[in-house]
Amino acid sequence: MAIEHLFKERWQQEWRQYSKYLRYVFNDHAMLALLFLLGAAGLAYRQLWESVPVTFWTRTLLLLVLLLTLALFKTPASFVKGADPVFFMGNEGALRRLFHQATLYSVIVNGIVQLLLTVILWPMMFRLLTPSMITTFLVTVALMAVKMLFTFMKARRTTLFNTTVGNNLIDWRAVVAAEDKRQAAILGFFNLFIDVPGMKPAVRRQRWADGLLKHWPNQQRNPLVRLLVTTFIRQGQYWDVWVRLSLIGLLVAFVTTGWLQTILFVILFYLLVLQILPLVSSHRALVFDHLYPVTVKQRQQAFRYAMMPWFTVTVLIWSVVGGTLAGSITLLLQNVIGLVVVGGILLFWYTNRIIANTFRRRNSRAFTK
């Protein structure tokens, strides 16, 4: 098999796999929420663009944002699998060509991503930095070149043995490890929504949470509560989702006000519940219903008891920050009431329905086989 054909086959296979998983991630409900979120975010961005003052601090903040975009999507792909160094042992030149083609592919893709991120910031650049289209275009090209250089340097640095420079050897073990890490980071996102075959999420003990786990409420009423809370804290994917969306909500509080802020908070809260909901079935391979009778009602109750304190913290942070920045008690109460009402509907009706359908469908399939 020609190495060019192998490279083409692997990157096409990767994108086919992602497109298959994306159908489950962006289902009907998620797509509707994302459309509302994008529309509201666009409106908020327009309001910010029209009202932001032209000062030294706003210009500095925009420059920092432009520099921060360079840190996004800079990881190169290699498409080198664990068996490749052994398979190509007698023809390392072919494996090098695969790596070089993958590096070129990553440089181009990351450069395009940088272009899109910079174009999104063009309106703010025109307002705060320069009205010149030529200058803005040159800055965009410069940022793309830097991102492409970063990607190439990171790919090159991965191949080196420790800090050895000046030789022509490639550390294929490090290349394979870097590719596995890249794939794990991408598939970890999909694993929040569906069970990705062969995906083993990382588990980290958080010592700061040991005392929290011991004193978590309602553990005696439902033994599954401690199991779910421990998984949420120690299995990084759920914790990362909660932290990420909570921080996005703080950003919304800074750039919006009024009903637009409340609507964005509600949409973000819905997306938060939607992405953490798979937590309830994360231990289905450990808790066997036919050996230890766990009812659907107990699972529904455990999810509420485990996640309600985290959701309450999110609601309070968003509402207090939003109301404080706007200097309005009315907005604070509006956010609290809106999020509490929507949160109650999600936790006491929506999640109960999804959990019941999930386990009823699994049990019916098990007994029909």
TrEMBL record:
Keywords for this entry? Membrane, Transmembrane, Transmembrane helix
The transmembrane residues are 21-44, 56-73, 102-122, 128-150, 241-257, 263-281, 302-326, 332-352
**Signal peptide limits:** none
Q: Which cellular component, as a GO term, is one annotated location? A: membrane
Give any Pfam family that matches: EcsB
Full protein name: ABC transporter permease
Species source reads Weissella confusa (Lactobacillus confusus)
